[in-house]
Amino acid sequence: MVxxxxxxxxxxxxxxxxxxxxxxxxxxxxxxxxxxxxxGIGDLNVIVAKHDRWGLWKRFxxxxxxxxxxxxxRVHRVYCDMGLNLPxxxxxxxxxxxxxxxxxxxxxx
Length: 109
Prior knowledge:
By secondary structure, the protein is mainly alpha-helical. It has 2 domains: 1-30, no CATH class; 31-84. 51% of the residues lie in helices and 0% in strands.
C-alpha cells in the first residue's frame, strides 16, 4: 500500500503516516524464513542423522545445549516444516484366539 502511495507522487514520510507504518519499517525488508532458519535446520539435520527416532523435545533440548537460542515454538515450526513429526508408536496387538467355553470345576471345601 505504501509503495502505491509513493508511486503516486507522495513523499515516503506522508505515505507511511497514512498507512500507519513507521519509516524504519518501510526501509527494513524482512529476511526470508529460509535464511533465518538455515543454521538451525543444518544442526537439526545433523541430530536427525544420528538419532532418527528422537522426538521433538529431545531434539530441542540437544539444540538448546548446543547453544542455539531458539524457543520451542520456532523449533516446532521448523520441525513440522521438515516433516519430522512422526506418528506415535502404538502397542502391538495380539492375534485373536478362538473363544472356548469355561469348564466348571468342583468348589473347594
